[in-house]
Amino acid sequence: MRLALERIGHAFLGRAVFENLTLNLDRGEVLALVGPSGCGKTTALQIAAGLVDPLRGRVRRDYRRHAVVFQEPRLLPWQRTVDNIAYGLAARGVGREERHVIAAARAAEVGLHPRDLDKYPAELSGGMRQRAAVARALAVDPEVVFFDEPFTAVDVGLRRVLQDLVITASAREKFSALFVTHDLSEAARLGHRIIVMSGRDGSILVDRTIAGTPGARDDRAIFEMVQGWMHEPAFAELFDPDRDRA
Ligand SMILES: Nc1ncnc2c1ncn2[C@@H]1O[C@H](COP(=O)(O)OP(=O)(O)OP(=O)(O)O)[C@@H](O)[C@H]1O
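Above: inputs. Below: predicted complex with adenosine-5'-triphosphate.
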């Protein structure tokens, strides 16, 4: 077990997001977290990543290094791509030359061209910026990666490429990942397990292993899996979050 949220309760301005959230992330596992907008997925991720302190409950972490990939790339505009990718390494005291070697290797893994390394974020396309954000996360050799809807803003074709990057990298590097997404097909492509959060009280409606292995599921299998999920009441809230709301 890499990470455990134990009986977490959280509220903003006195309004509860969830009262009693418990979830585990296993070693090497990509856990897809889905739920209707506003149910608390990002809050759960931020608590798991230590970016927000929960009001109640406990977070147990059994790892040394993690990284976060946000929906927007959050690159430093005044730094070249190579230095953005190496950002976490600089914070860890890795020397400049070694940082650049590692950053160049990570950039190549996410499909950035060597000439992109000297560019500033404003000179990159949106997709290239998000590739750089993934490279920056992987550069620190994280044992856990938190993805908060990282590919929502990129176009469909590139989204698949970036999903494949995550699948390949997680299989190669054996990191665990908590992957928040709105997209059931994305969850079905890259997850080992899926959790569905309720829009009513943030409780967990579904927690199940996804059949097959990420990267080995073909499009038809993914399509059929998602079709099957969509017929389950627990998933229906994703499409009609006000259904049972008082
Ligand atoms: N900083 C904040 N201050 C006040 N309320 C907040 C804050 N952050 C989140 N909330 C509220 O907490 C609830 C959960 O938000 P959260 O962003 O975790 O949901 P989500 O499931 O990730 O939503 P989405 O899928 O739309 O990104 C929402 O009602 C939101 O308005």
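The mean pLDDT is 93.
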